[in-house]
Amino acid sequence: MNQTDRKDAINPFGKLNFLVVDDFENFRLSMRQMLRSCGADKIELVAHATPAIQYCTYNHVDVVLCDYNLGEGKNGQHILEELRHKKLLSRSSLFLMVTAETSKEMVMGAREYQPDAYLTKPLNRAMLEKRLGALVQQRSALLPITREMDRENYPEAISQCLQLLPKQPRYKTWLMKTLGELYFIVGDLSHALKVYDEVLAQRELSWARLGRCKVLLGNRNFDDSVEGLKALIAKHPDYMEAYDLLAEGLEKQGKAVQAQQILEKAAEHSPNALLRQKHLALLAGTNQDIDTASQAWRQTVTLGTYSIHDNSDHYLSLAQSLSDLSEGHPEAEGAEHAAEALNVLSKMEKRFADDDSIGLKSRIVQCRVHAGQGNQKSAEKLLGDLRAELETLEDIPADLGLDYAKTLFRLGRDEEAKSLLSDLAARYGDNPETLQKIENLLDEPVGFRQKIEARGYNRDGIKAFESGDLDGAVEAFNRALAIVPDHAALNLNLIQVLLRKYDQAPDDHSLLTTCQECLRRLEGLPEQHRQHRRYSALARKLKGLTA
Q: Gene3D superfamilies, alphabetically (predicted)?
């Protein structure tokens, strides 16, 4: 050991750069004094989030000691979230949350971004030196690994882990956990599984169980992964990462409703995780649970106020869901939703004023809100302005075009909406996600309540057809078509039932006439539509029967 190494061993704090973030000057000064008495020399003091993030942008920081409550504006969780998102902290840097706040919401929210430790106020020198000293010692021992991870040289990081395992038995847990994660990152799932199985054979550790389930999910072994995660959550109901992974697994199984329920439970435990609230909002929207979607978008917008993840799309999605809730409901509750939607759009325009497309996106939804509340005059005026503005665009982006088409349908401009969607389908023919959205809107250009009602009749019709009750099937499909007359699958379902009835009563030509009426409704069906092949096959069959 040379003289420098001896000096570092005696004073491990001496060469480290410290950043103390606290809005109380007395605490900052006290913390600096304690750190100096521990041997620290390079100590920066700041009062709030903005200078803290700015300092980390231009300076390497080894240790951040940050208070949770920093007065108005960003809190400690927001700082940690932003530093992690922008990768302003290296893997070897330490982030310690220093706080007198002990509420479950705070702890759960901050834990989402994995601080290295919590220090509870009031703090004394002995406690600081003991906790921080242990972390600094670990940091130093594991530096060869974290350095390679920062360089994204994962094979070398794996090699360093394997070399250190026999040399640093006190850090075996960290090394095994990191080794499993590194194998997963490089796509070596068999070695990752081996690491987790080795750990679990010795001791039941929640992170190892989670890692194993993640590998199973990566191997498309959905059933075992989902069952393992359910068992893990039963033992550790506050393990948020397990909820997120379970929701992912359920989605891959095609169980979107169950995935939503899992995220709802997770949001109850930890309500301050913006990205989870956003995921919940998207899932609920997919499940046509617009009440839950609106609430989750509302929470996402609120949490975004000081978050690096704040986004105009969150405001827009909230306004769109509120518009859906208000449509066709001019009574008190519907009017409240409409007013809230317009208020959210106004806030969005002010908050994201630098985005040139924000005003246009806002007016498209405003127009729909007014139409849904029966304010036809206001809706028509907005529509005129929108047409003039959209004509100046060379190509309408997919999301903007879809939302505009939805508004056109609401105002009874069905042919204009269908023409726009046809153009979008031609332009985005190689984008399955966009094509799916186009199909959904072509099939069901109505409010979500009507969609749910029509889907219920469709399910009834399919059940009746499968049980041999053809008359019941015809009645159910006709009820659904009264709500969404141009729905491709519904029209084709009805044709199939009527052709089956025609097989039993070949003299009843009125059945074929009704089939032809259904086909005429689908004459403009885009070739990219997933029902187009079925439409063509039934059209040929009907032509043969009527020739």
A: 3.40.50.2300, Tetratricopeptide repeat domain
Residue 421 lies in a domain: no
Count the neighbouring beta carbons within 10 Å of the beta carbon of residue 341: 26
Residue 214 has φ and ψ, to the nearest 5°, of -65, -40
Least confident range of 233-237, 377-381, 408-412, 445-449: 445-449
Phi/psi for 253 (5° steps) reads -85, -5
Peptide bond into 122 cis (omega under 30): yes
Q: Are 375 and 356 in contact (CB under 8 A)?
A: no
User: Over pLDDT 90: what percentage of the chain?
Assistant: 78
Is residue 64 within 8 Å of residue 16, measured between CB atoms? Answer: no
- The string of DSSP codes covering 115-147 is -SEEEESS--HHHHHHHHHHHHHHHHHTHHHHH
Count the residues in the chain: 547
- What tokens were used for 75? 């809190």
Q: How far out from the chain centre does Cα 332 lie?
A: 32
Domain end marker among 122, 139, 156? 139
3-state class of 239 per DSSP? coil
pLDDT at 110 exceeding the cut of 70: no
User: What does the block give as tokens for 201?
Assistant: 């054979």
Given 120, 139, 158, which residue is the final one in a domain? Answer: 139
